[in-house]
TrEMBL record:
Keywords: Oxidoreductase. One of its GO terms (molecular function) is oxidoreductase activity. This is Acr1 protein. It is an enzyme of class 1 (oxidoreductase). SUPFAM superfamilies: NAD(P)-binding Rossmann-fold domains. The lineage of its organism: Bacteria, Pseudomonadati, Pseudomonadota, Alphaproteobacteria, Rhodobacterales.
Length: 223
């Protein structure tokens, strides 16, 4: 929908990992139509997002929270239920990239951190959010896949593979009427902070911007 179009006020859109990169771009795109609940650890990034959404005529609720905090996520989902009764969209972009390291030098601490954010938090959030999507008549859950170089990215690739398996299982299981529609989307390379860690010195001018990718990925879904 064009900027300034009337928002769907019935149910909001939840974006986890919304403070920068693709998550921020998706939040801005969804704000053309929905009230956006934006979750991220970075307060400053959320405030910048809120400014951009308001300037475009949208509305957002900022939730400066860590997706790995079970209590905070429970409280957030309960608050969404109490205020709106459900969710139209959930876009999950929260991710932790472990340090690049050879497989035989992986730190247990780094691996545990990646598992906590990339796998455990997602496995916890799906049962929290699914009832909210069902309450909205199904709703849409959006996840984003990618591939990193095999060398030195073992922990990242391993946790992304686990994340992919969770999403694909939910996708296969969500076939009944009123079940959420699960989308596993593949963005083109973008000049994000995460990509810069894997491709230092890359010519960023040849990459798609996060907003270009948000528009390309969401337009076929009607957002």
């Amino acid at each position: 929908m064009a900027l300034g179009a009337a928002m769907d006020q019935t149910y909001p859109a939840l974006v986890t990992g919304a403070s920068r990169g693709l998550g921020a771009a998706i939040a801005k795109r969804l704000a053309h139509r929905f009230h956006v609940v934006a979750v991220a650890r970075t307060q400053g990034g959320l405030e910048e997002l809120d400014d951009a959404i308001q300037q475009a005529g949208g509305q957002a609720t900022l939730a400066p929270m860590d997706v790995t905090d079970a209590g905070a996520m429970q409280h957030l989902c309960r608050s969404i239920h109490d205020r709106w009764g459900g969710l139209a969209v959930w876009a999950h972009t929260a991710i932790t990239p472990p340090p690049l390291t050879p497989a035989d030098m992986v730190s247990e601490k780094d691996m545990a951190s990646a598992l906590k954010t990339n796998v455990t938090a997602l496995a916890r959030l799906i049962p929290y959010v699914s009832p909210l999507l069902r309450a909205a008549g199904g709703g849409d859950a959006l996840f984003f896949d990618d591939e990193k170089p095999a060398k030195f990215a073992g922990p990242y690739n391993a946790t992304k593979a686990a994340q992919r398996a969770l999403v694909q299982a939910w996708q296969a299981e969500s076939t009944a009427d009123g079940a959420p529609r699960i989308h596993l989307l593949r963005p083109e390379p973008m000049p994000t902070a995460i990509r810069a860690r894997f491709h230092p010195g890359e010519d960023k001018s040849r990459l798609a911007t996060p907003m270009q990718e948000a528009e390309r990925l969401l337009e076929p879904l009607g957002f």
